[in-house]
Amino acid sequence: MTKTAQSIYDDAPLGARIRYSDGTPRPPERFTRKVRAWESRNGGGRLTQLSPAGTGSHPYPATFTLHEADYGSEDVIVLSVNKMFAVTDQRVFEIVDVPPPGAALVLQEWNDQRELLHVAADRAAAESWLDRHGYSRALVEIVGEAETAIKAA
Question: InterPro entries per the record (predicted)?
Answer without folding.
Answer: UCP036055
